[in-house]
Inverse folding.
């Protein structure tokens, strides 16, 4: 769920939320590769015995959103899980889901939260305007005139 910034995972048996190792989980674009992102951080909590909710870290969300072909819908979101990513209550490792043969997501919710402008810096010497946003945005080169109110650019 890219809007709520979580991943809900269902397992065949009870797993320990505290056993989650983020860098053992990878999102990838296709069942056999494409753009990829290995999780750097995050946290897991148990919702039920076999269901975990994994909260994605901002660093991971920004990196995933920067990869414009990854995790934009259910058709381009697959999960790879390396050995040691999770363990069951007997401390057995979760069975690996390899890069070739990644698991497609069952449900996908796209990001519907609009980014916010958090800071702006203008340097008249270098003629640079630097804008900082709450999340990764597509830098498509918006003309500066489009950023001014309808009355136009001030004199």
């Amino acid at each position: 769920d890219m809007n709520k910034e979580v991943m809900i995972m269902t397992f065949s048996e009870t797993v320990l939320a505290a056993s989650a190792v983020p860098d053992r989980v990878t999102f990838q674009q296709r069942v056999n590769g494409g753009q990829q992102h290995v999780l750097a951080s995050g946290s897991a909590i148990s919702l039920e015995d076999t269901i975990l909710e994994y909260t994605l870290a901002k660093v991971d969300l920004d990196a995933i959103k920067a990869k414009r072909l990854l995790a934009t819908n259910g058709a381009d979101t697959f999960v790879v899980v390396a050995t040691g990513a999770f363990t069951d209550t007997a401390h057995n490792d979760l069975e690996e889901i390899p890069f070739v043969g990644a698991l497609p997501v069952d449900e996908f919710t796209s990001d519907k939260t609009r980014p916010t402008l958090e800071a702006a810096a203008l340097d008249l010497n270098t003629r640079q305007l630097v804008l900082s946003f709450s999340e990764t945005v597509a830098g498509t080169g918006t003309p500066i005139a489009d950023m001014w109110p309808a009355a136009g650019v001030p004199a």
